[in-house]
Design brief:
Mean pLDDT: 82
Distance between the termini: 52 Å
Largest sheet: 5 strands, mixed
Structural class: mainly beta
Number of helices: 2
Order of helices and strands: HEHEEEEEEE
Radius of gyration: 23 Å
Low-confidence stretches: 5-9, 11-29
Strand order of the largest sheet: 1-4-5-7-8
């Protein structure tokens, strides 16, 4: 009986002595499985497409989900590339400018929404935050802060 109590005491002390500090946990380490990377290419950046509207943005770790709306039959043939200007504005926080390259071959007038997810880890700069500016419309600028 004494040996069982000793084993239980050692087990309890061992479990209680384990400490995981905040520095050991990286909450941004979500993997974007099968998500395309951002295209960093200044020559492709100027291709503004005003036939698409951003209706939602959300971040989860290094994964950016963009919800767009556009006209079409069902959205099944839509493709979307996320293109970065390859320029960092060193403000506080630093800023990167992006456009959506939207391809839609559907010839219907109905409006649909569809979400696309991208791995944006390649957009990190020194520090722990960058503001992402989406410049697809001449009338509005959509932004989101990416913290890593």
């Amino acid at each position: 009986m004494k040996s069982i109590n000793t084993i239980l005491l050692i087990l309890c002390v061992t479990l209680l002595s384990c400490d995981v500090g905040d520095e050991d946990i990286n909450t941004n380490q979500q993997v974007c499985i099968n998500a395309p990377d951002v295209i960093i290419d200044a020559s492709r950046y100027g291709n503004l497409n005003e036939n698409v509207s951003i209706t939602g943005l959300s971040l989860s770790g290094d994964c950016l989900t963009i919800i767009i709306s556009g006209s079409g039959c069902d959205g099944s043939s839509w493709t979307l590339d996320l293109v970065d200007s390859d320029v960092v504005s060193f403000s506080s926080p630093p800023e990167r400018n992006l456009v959506l390259e939207f391809t839609n071959t559907e010839l219907c007038a109905a409006v649909f929404e569809k979400s696309f997810t991208f791995d944006i880890s390649s957009l990190q700069v020194s520090g722990n935050e960058v503001q992402l500016n989406f410049n697809n419309s001449s009338t509005s600028l959509t932004t989101i802060n990416y913290m890593y």
